[in-house]
Amino acid sequence: MSKLLIEDNFDDNFYASEWAETVTVPATDDDLLILTQKLSNQFVPTKVFFQAVAIAAYDGASAFRYADNYLTSAKRKNRRKNPLLFRKPLTNFDYN
User: Fold this and answer.
1) Quick one: pLDDT band at residue 78, thresholds 50, 70, 90?
2) C-alpha distance from residue 62 to each of 14, 38, 89 (Å)
3) How big is the CA angle at 20 (ends 17 and 21), to the nearest 5 degrees?
4) Is residue 9 within 8 Å of residue 40, measured between CB atoms?
5) For a FRET experiment, which of 42, 62, 63, 88 has its CA 20 to 30 Å from that of 28?
6) Are 71 and 45 in contact (CB under 8 A)?
7) Average pLDDT for residues 58-65, to the nearest whole number?
8) Alpha-carbon distance 65 to 22, whole Å?
């Protein structure tokens, strides 16, 4: 989202892709707003939110990847809950 590709113009003897260099760019205010909205739609600990904002200060794309990875791992963790915990007991002890 916020990476730039810098290519140097060399002679025809060199491939431009070999000399291409990626530069990380800090997140803009709009990117921070989008990141905040993405993380506020789910229950996210404040530690994770502040870590994403700290990453965004140096690299906006990495902050979005960090947020996406956290949200997908949290979603997978919620799916893996043990279904036996939600099962009703086999015996009814209410009539003792």
Assistant:
1) confident
2) 30, 14, 47
3) 150
4) no
5) 42
6) no
7) 94
8) 17
Which tokens go with 17? 């892709």
Cβ within 8 Å of residue 44, ≥6 positions away: 70, 71, 74
pTM as predicted: 0.61
pLDDT band at residue 42 using 50, 70 and 90 as cut-offs: confident
Rounded to an integer, what distance in angstroms lies between the CA atom of residue 72 and that of residue 86?
A: 23
> How far apart are alpha carbons 57 and 53 in whole angstroms?
6
Q: Which residues contact 63 (CB under 8 A, 6 or more apart)?
A: 27, 31, 35, 52, 53, 55, 56
